[in-house]
């Protein structure tokens, strides 16, 4: 799920997601959460640039699973038509 607070060419993006890590014999191992807080620059029929912070969190349910936080950053470059 994501939401973009947009202006004419620049916007602020905010979003997140929920998932599950499932093992073949163990069943549900962990719940996963991910998010995005970012900036987007886009002009019609021109360059798109995005940069953001996208953390990943794993909350364990299984006995062998571990709590995990992975702070990720990303950039993307593209072209709109």
Q: What are the salient characteristics of this protein?
A:
81 residues; mainly beta; 7-stranded antiparallel beta sheet; elongated
Brief summary:
The protein is an all-beta fold. It has strands at residues 2-6, 10-23, 27-42, 47-53, 56-60, 68-70, 73-79.
Q: Gyration radius, to the nearest Å?
A: 17 Å
Q: State the distance separating the first and last CA atoms.
A: 24 Å
- Average the pLDDT over all residues and give the rounded result: 85
How big a fraction of the residues is strand? over 45%
Task: Tell me the number of helical segments per DSSP (H or I, 4 or more residues long).
Answer: 0
Q: Could you outline the blueprint of secondary structure elements for this entry?
A:
Layout: E1 2-6, E2 10-23, E3 27-42, E4 47-53, E5 56-60, E6 68-70, E7 73-79
Task: Describe what this molecule looks like in 3D.
The chain is mainly β and 81 residues long. It has one domain (2-79). Helix content is 0%, strand content 70%. The protein has no helices and seven strands. Strands 1, 2, 3, 4, 5, 6 and 7 form a seven-stranded antiparallel sheet that branches. Strand 2 (10-23) and strand 3 form a beta hairpin. The model has no long low-confidence stretch (mean pLDDT 85).
């Amino acid at each position: 799920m994501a939401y973009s607070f947009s202006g004419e060419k620049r916007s602020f993006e905010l979003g997140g997601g929920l998932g599950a890590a499932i093992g073949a014999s163990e069943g549900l191992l962990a719940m996963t959460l991910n998010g995005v807080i970012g900036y987007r620059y886009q002009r019609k029929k021109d360059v798109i640039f995005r940069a953001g912070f996208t953390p990943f969190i794993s909350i364990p349910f299984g006995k062998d699973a571990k709590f995990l936080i992975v702070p990720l950053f990303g950039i993307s470059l593209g072209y709109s038509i």
